[in-house]
Amino acid sequence: MVDVPWDIAVGGDLVYPGVEGRRTLRSRLINAYLGRLHAAAAHDATLGAAFLRVTRLVSPPQSLLHPGVALRVLRAGRLPGTGSAAAGDRDAVPAAPTWADHAS
Prior knowledge:
Layout: H1 3-13, H2 25-41, H3 45-55, H4 67-78
Helix pairs in contact: 2-3, 2-4
């Protein structure tokens, strides 16, 4: 019952170069995909909700590989800028203002 959450937690740590552990092709691919998903989810409410369902253990991690989710992740990575959702996307959420936005 705890294997999947444990794998998520431990596998995510392997993204950092200083963490010891074997980086298999599988772990590198999953971490690369999750990095793209995280970047896209910052601007796409549908992806954000899908990720939250997994982190809250409501949906299985495999649901993040569903074709509809994967297509949104891949499509966001091909758009100009920082991987944000397409303009006019009804599920897109504007980025929160940062400190730099208010520093003037």
